[in-house]
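Sequence only, no structure available. Ideas?
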Amino acid sequence: DMGPGQGVGALMLAARETGWVTGVDLFPTVLESAKGNEVRNRGLLRGSVEWVLGDVRWLPFGAEVFDLVVLNPPYFRRGEGRVSSNPIRAAARHESFGTLGDWVREGAKALRFGGRLSCVLPLARVEEARGLFAESGLEEVCGEGNEGRAWVVLQAVRSSRSKSTA
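Reply:
I predicted one. C-alpha cells follow.
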C-alpha cells in the first residue's frame, strides 16, 4: 500500500488475506497512526502488516517483489486546487512529493509479472493514468466508477518489461 494514510486499505487486505501486507509512507506520524489502527484491529487480521518509512518515488524494495500494489496517489497536480495548511494533508492531496507518474512507475516496478496494481484517482486523471500504465508495462483490466462520481478505481496487470523497469 503506497501512501497508506491511516492504514485502512492495508488493514482491510490483511483482514482478508494471509501473508504479508506492507504499507509505505513518507511521514512517521502517519505510520504511527496506522500502527495504532493495526493494534486496535489485531483480532480481525489474518495476515501480518509491516509499516515502512519510505518515499514512493524511490521505494525501499527491489523490483518484482509484490503480487499486488495499491495506490491512492495525490489527487491534484502541483498548483491545482486549494492546498491545506496541514502539511500531511497537503502532501496526500497534491503532488508535493511525487507525480502520478512517479507513483505508477514505482508501483509497476515493485510488481511481479502478472501482479496487479489498483489505483484510486479522480475521473479527470484517468486518461493520464492509462498512458502511464502503458508506459510502465501495465495492462488495464478493470475500471470501476459509479456514474456521476468523481473517483475511479483502475486495475492493471504487469504484463511486460518497460523502460523504467528493465
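The chain has five helices and six strands.
Hope that gets you unstuck.
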